[in-house]
Design goal:
This protein is mostly helical and about 500 residues long. About 80% of the residues lie in helices and about 0% in strands. Helix 2 packs parallel to helix 9 (about 135-165), helix 13 (about 265-295) runs antiparallel to helix 19 and helix 14 runs parallel beside helix 16.
């Protein structure tokens, strides 16, 4: 270990990491802030639901395209230049969104925002992996988890309150000054921590990656709305899959791949990736199903439904640094097993909610579920990254972020499909029973009674769909729990540089 690296590990660049934290926090917060505002934007610009959904879908697509390329950017450019470029793009996008005179300008502004935010998360993770030794990474990544988990969790609550009291543009007006201040601080205070290498970008790899990940994300994200039989859905999924297979094979042949797939030869990284994918799918169930249940079925206001999730966000925020320190002391396996057990139990109880489940019960269940989740995500991810040699850190962080994007989209699509299928089947069954009862009793209900009965049937059917989907989510979480028992504590292999090449000797654990 060089003297420079040793001094860096002894004194981590906390000021720099704080700047990166704030940048990443506002970027993730902005991703979730807009969801509750979509109806107001539809009304102002007179656009339909399909068009307005592109404000979220487009943001996610740009992330899916640029995150895989982040490994190249992190290795090629200095931390300061990269962060200032990313933050400048994000700030410009926020400003344009705030003053957008048309829907087209607003959509373009969201794309610019996404281009900036896509680089921030992998950059922050990579700086922390470089700045902290393995024995202190848990605490550092716990603080990172605070950003990654808390920002999207408080987004809906904050957004609901702002929309209730102000115009939707306030969502961008709130973020803009924070983004500008972060940019100013970065220009003066940011230093370079990660090493740079003069590598070239393989343009064909970038094209294949964009088509592959972009196609998968768009296809699966559209499946819930357009249906699996839509040529646009299965067409983009097929094209995306073929492009992704070609992209992977090309990366394995290149000496300097854009995204290094050989990192999956490290067993704990491969295992952590598998667990993270399964958890992401299970986690999305509550994020999708809870708003449908509390707003559509129970008629609870957006503000109150946001408040329902706030204690869970606070618990996750408090627990992330604590979990990080526990990880440093005890490792990932015990935390993951306890956390996933809590997640499984609470998710199962969500599969039993009814039309009159108390609001306080929902808050308690959701908060406990988030408590369980807080013990799983960052420890499992950090343990996997800990096995990678330092020069593969950019690829590890890029791969993790990419897999989370794709698994989130796939998980959402699958769970929405399961819910819709169960809802439709139950509605037909309940309608048939109602018709049979009316025929048996020779009763012809009034128009108002018929409408009320139809609404009741739809609510009952949707509740059944939600319950069934939570049960499927429980089974998915059980898979993650089984995998968690195979987690072992690891440290990175030693690296020796000879004639500019890495020679690796893997530490046996």
């Amino acid at each position: 270990m060089s003297e420079k690296t040793h001094s860096l590990e002894k004194k981590a660049p906390y000021g720099m990491i704080a700047i990166l934290f704030i940048g990443a926090f506002v970027a993730i917060l902005n991703e979730t802030l807009l969801n509750i505002a979509l109806p107001s934007i539809m009304e102002e610009f007179e656009v339909n639901a399909t068009a307005v959904q592109w404000l979220s879908t487009g943001y996610m697509l740009i992330n899916g395209i640029l995150i895989p390329a982040s490994a190249f950017f992190i290795q090629r450019f200095s931390d300061k230049k990269l962060f200032i470029t990313a933050m400048s793009l994000f700030t410009l996008g926020t400003f344009l969104a705030s003053i957008a005179p048309t829907f087209g300008v607003l959509l373009g502004a969201r794309m610019i925002q996404a281009a900036g935010s896509a680089i921030m998360m992998p950059l922050l993770m990579n700086v922390m992996l470089t700045a902290f030794p393995v024995e202190k990474r848990g605490a550092a990544m716990g603080m990172f988890g605070l950003v990654m988990i808390t920002a999207p969790a408080i987004g809906p609550t904050l957004s609901g309150w702002l929309i209730e009291h102000y115009n939707w543009r306030m969502l961008f007006d709130l973020v803009l000054p924070i983004a500008i201040l972060t940019l100013i601080f970065a220009a003066f205070k940011l230093k370079d921590v990660t090493p740079q290498r003069a590598i070239k970008l393989d343009v064909f790899s970038l094209v294949l990656s964009s088509i592959g990940f972009g196609g998968l994300l768009y296809g699966f994200s559209s499946a819930g709305e357009k249906g699996w039989d839509s040529p646009l859905v299965y067409g983009t999924i097929i094209i995306g899959t073929l492009a992704l297979i070609t992209f992977t094979l090309r990366q394995l042949r290149l000496d300097e791949p854009m995204l290094e797939f050989r990192i999956f030869k490290y067993p704990m990284f491969a295992l952590s990736s598998a667990i993270s994918i399964v958890i992401a799918v299970a986690m999305f169930s509550a994020m999708i199903l809870m708003p449908i249940y509390v707003q559509t079925i129970r008629g609870i206001s957006p503000m109150d439904s946001g408040l329902l999730m706030l204690p869970g966000a606070i618990v996750m925020g408090i627990m992330s640094p604590i979990t990080g320190k526990l990880f440093d002391k005890y490792g990932a396996r015990i935390l993951a097993v306890i956390g996933l057990t809590i997640t499984i139990v609470t998710t199962y109880y969500f599969s039993k909610i009814s039309m009159d489940t108390a609001y306080s019960t929902l808050v308690l269940l959701y908060t406990l579920r988030m408590f369980g989740m807080s013990m799983v995500m960052m420890p499992v991810m950090t343990n996997g990254l800990n096995q990678l040699p330092a020069h593969n850190n950019p690829h590890g962080t890029a791969m993790n972020n990419t897999l989370q994007q794709v698994s989130g989209a796939i998980g959402s699509a699958v769970l929405i499909t399961v819910m819709n299928h169960q809802t439709t089947a139950k509605a037909e069954e309940l309608a048939a029973d109602a018709m049979a009862n009316m025929s048996a009793n020779a009763v012809q209900p009034s128009a108002q009674a018929a409408a009320e009965m139809q609404q009741h049937i739809m609510n009952e059917a949707m509740l059944h769909g939600i319950n069934f989907t939570f049960f499927i989510s429980t089974l998915i979480a059980v898979i993650a729990l089984i995998l968690a028992f195979f987690i072992k504590r690891v440290t990175p292999p030693h690296e020796v540089k000879t004639d500019g090449e890495h020679l690796e000797t893997v530490n046996e654990q």
